[in-house]
Amino acid sequence: MARKPMMAGNWKMNNTIAEAVVLAQEISNHYEKEWPEHVDVVVCPPYVDLKPVKTVFDFDKAKVSVAAQNVYWEPAGAFTGEVSVPMLKEIGCTHCIVGHSERRELFGETNEDVNRKVKALVAGGIAPIVCVGESLAVRDAGTTDEYVCAQVRAALAGLDAADMAGAVIAYEPIWAIGTGRTATPEQAEAVCAAIRATLAELFGGEVAEDARVLYGGSMNPGNVEALVVQPDIDGGLVGGASLKAESFVQLIEACL
Q: How far is CA 67 from CA 43, 50, 113, 121, 149, in A?
């Protein structure tokens, strides 16, 4: 059975509650009943927008899932500024991004931190969207596959095949995020194929065949079709193009 694509919009630190509600409503206005049959649509707003955005989709009966952009691995406690898995679960989040390159680069998150978050999400019944990717220096050195696959192994350390149900890997070449540069479809496919081969080594061929691997580097309406047609690219984790309903809907429809 072919994998169902996923189109996930990462809003990053954008949109007040009022702006988020407007964007969610615009997406909902374009919603088509055939979407769920062909593609899983996910939006990842900032924490403060999660519940209002979910309320819009629930009210309109639009089957668009809501995901968080980050989480802490402890369920509760003296961790000022953090948000836990049970909090996200109560809101109704189905997924949560972990290990985004901005978290790694700007906030010092390590592979070990990512692994703790993945384990907490899996234990709490929320599917992780695990981000991996290389810098331009790594790509120029010719060690992209080794670097990215080491990130995959580190993020998923200690998990078994059952834990991987619903888990998503997002390949995001750091040099292509927000720069307007995009890996060629062939470059993106090669790394996504290497990621899938790593999943097969870790968890077996069935898990690797079922797991979705997304592309996350400046996907837009101009390049989406060439990317999603690749055999090992199962959709996108999209930044800028998800902040306008029209462009996000174009990406969704490219998966139909």
A: 6, 8, 19, 12, 24
> Tokens standing for 8?
């996930």
Please state, in angstroms and rounded to a whole number, the distance separating the CA atoms of residues 229 and 200: 21
Active site residues: 100, 172
Number of alpha carbons in the 13 Å side-chain half-sphere of residue 27: 35
What tokens does 83 get?
């948000």
Strand segments (E) across 22-164 = 40-44, 64-68, 95-98, 127-132
Strand partners, 236: 7, 215
Q: Which residues is 134 bridged to in the sheet? A: none
Each residue of 60-90: pLDDT tens digit? 999 999 999 999 999 999 999 999 999 999 9
pLDDT given for residue 74 in this prediction? 98
State how far Cα 134 lies from the chain centre.
Answer: 16
Contacts of 99 (CB under 8 A, 6+ apart): 109, 111, 114, 117, 130, 131, 132, 151, 155
Contact in structure between 173 and 217 (CB atoms under 8 Å): yes
Q: What is the dihedral of CA 203, 205, 206, 210, to 10 degrees?
A: 90
DSSP run (H or E) holding 106: helix 101-107
Pairing of strands 40-44, 95-98: unpaired
Whether the Cβ atoms of residue 68 and residue 97 lie closer than 8 Å to each other: yes
**pLDDT given at position 34:** 96
Q: How deeply is 77 buried, as exposed, middle or buried, from its count of CB atoms within 10 A (0-12, 13-18, 19+)? A: exposed
Write down the residue that tokens 């069935």 correspond to. Answer: 206
Distance (Å, rounded) from C-alpha 65 to C-alpha 50?
Answer: 10
Task: Specify the DSSP class assigned to residue 75.
Answer: S
